[in-house]
Amino acid sequence: MTLAVEEPTAVESALVEAMEALEGPEPRTLQTITGNGVSIAKQYGTGVGHFWYVIVSDIATDLDWAELDDLSEELGVHWQSRVLWSHFAPVPCPALPGSTSSTIYTVHPEARS
Question: For residue 27, is the peptide bond before it cis, meaning its omega torsion is within 30 degrees of 0?
Answer without folding.
Answer: yes
